[in-house]
Amino acid sequence: MRPNPYASLWNGTVGRSLRVRESAFRVKVCRVVGRGGGNNVPFHDGFSSIRSEVLLASDRSTDILIRFSRTMTESTDTPLEVQADESASHKGGARRAIVRGLGVVLPPLLTIVVLIWAWNAIENYVLLPVETGIRRFVLIPAVSETYDRPPEGAIINDAPEGSLSKPNQRGFTYKGLSYVPDPTGRRYLPGYVVQRVDSEIDAFGPYSVPPNSATAYWDRFVQLQYMPRSVVVPVFLIVFFVLLYFLGRLFTGGIGRWFVTTFDATILRIPIVNKVYGSVKQITDFAFDDRQIEFNRVVAIQYPRDGIWSLGFVTGNGMREISEAAGEPMLSVLMPTSPMPMTGFTVSVRRSEAIDLNLTIDEALQFIVSCGVVVPTTQRYDLPGAKAPKQIVVPAIGDSVSRDGATSPSA
Questions:
Q1: 176 in the Ramachandran plot: left (φ > 0), alpha (ψ -120 to 50) or beta?
Q2: Which residue in 87, 91, 83 sits closest to 25, CA to CA?
Q3: H helices within 123-143, ranges in order?
Q4: What is the rounded CA–CA span in Å between residue 375 and residue 295?
Q5: What is the pTM of this model?
């Protein structure tokens, strides 16, 4: 019997490795076929492209005949561990590509979603109620011509040949206009209104229901004739922004300011409502009212301890008593938190311990919201041709800083 260099008793564990002649094989057991008869089954020298029953031969009666569930190819150079590393690397590369794709697609997609959501909110809660009110209470009463019965002097239309319809179901002609009954048969409206609405029924959407009364016909006729969306939306936006402008000017001082303050105080006294209103007002004041918090410049200070630098926004000078106790001018600095800069801490620091940064407010906010991922162009090290960073001497607490940046220990 030819000695079997692959002789080994494999414990039948699915997915284990069989290592022979410095080669690695990954074997998946489909089914144990039988035991014994080690020399009765032909031995296969190589495992290249084998899809059959293979016996791991030996002289013992505990040989196991296993059936491979897939074609196996011998690997003579690459160990199993290297193959596993390469597979993990490919998976990691695919994962990184997907994450990068999400990073590219999500910002514009979420921006579009937020804008669409904001527009839908304005349209449903502002535009549609205003549009409906103008149409039903102003335009329809002004232009509609509807009769409950044919007026005197009207000429009843002749019934079609073979029709048994009653006179009140035929319509009439009055002052040169043809009037037809509405779907209920109790009111009459001009025939051109019905013809215009029926011919452009698709303009109201694919699932729109035909009008079922004279008022409904006039409502849709006014939408088509006097208030098409191509006119309503631009006019609404212009009026909306002009109204916001005048309200902003009105409520910034005098009687308007007093009215806003009184209204806020009244709302804040209502239980449950005051919690929601107070939170929303804080967010809107931070986002839209630039007079509440004015950021003068961006600074870096050692916070929350020495050696850790954090970005902050200077909101003004510090309190007088704190400055007198410290012996030098103080700054009030807002320390925003990532990734939500709307929250943070207000600290008072010595003016000599704050380093002014060449950053705009928007660049600093982008840096904070991105948790340090988005670094402003002027602050990057890896840009080709970038200037060497200026050496900054970190002042110790208590040291004084001159205008040229030199530090001297305090006495």
A1: left
A2: 83
A3: 128-134, 140-143
A4: 20
A5: 0.49
Q: What angle do CA 325, 331, 337 make, to 5 degrees?
A: 120
Q: Say how far apart CA 368 and CA 321 lie, in whole Å.
A: 31
DSSP 137: I
Burial 333-348 (b: 16+ CB within 10 A, else e): bbbbeeeebeebeebe
The whole-angstrom distance between residue 15's C-alpha and the CA centroid of its chain comes to: 43
pLDDT along the chain (411 residues), means of 10: 45 40 38 41 40 41 42 44 55 79 86 91 92 92 90 79 56 90 90 92 85 93 92 92 88 81 89 86 70 71 90 90 91 88 87 91 89 86 57 50 49 47
- Alpha helix (H) residue ranges in 336-381: 361-369
- Classify 10 as helix, strand or coil: coil
How many whole angstroms separate alpha carbon 37 and alpha carbon 45?
18
Query: How many CA atoms, within 13 angstroms, populate the side-chain half-sphere of residue 259?
Result: 9
Quick one: residue 307, left, alpha or beta (phi over 0 = left, psi -120 to 50 = alpha)?
Answer: left
How many angstroms separate the CA atoms of 223 and 85, rounded? 67
β-strand pairing of 309-317 with 355-356: unpaired
- Give pLDDT, residue 38: 41
Domain ranges of the chain: 1-77, 96-229, 251-288, 298-400
Cross-strand bridge partners of residue 68: 29
- What confidence score (pLDDT) does residue 222 get? 94
- The DSSP call for residue 144 is -
Alpha-carbon distance 367 to 43, whole Å?
Answer: 67
Contact 357, 312 (CB under 8 A): no
Which of 3, 64, 76 is closest to 33 using CA atoms?
A: 64
Q: Are strands 23-26 and 17-20 parallel, antiparallel or unpaired?
A: antiparallel
Half-sphere exposure at residue 153, Cβ-oriented, CA atoms within 13 angstroms: 4
Q: Which two tokens stand for residue 16?
A: 């284990």
Question: Which element (helix H / strand E) includes 219?
Answer: helix 214-225
Complete DSSP assignment for 246-292: HHHHHTTSHHHHHHHHHHHHHHTTSTTHHHHHHHHHHHHHHHH-TTT
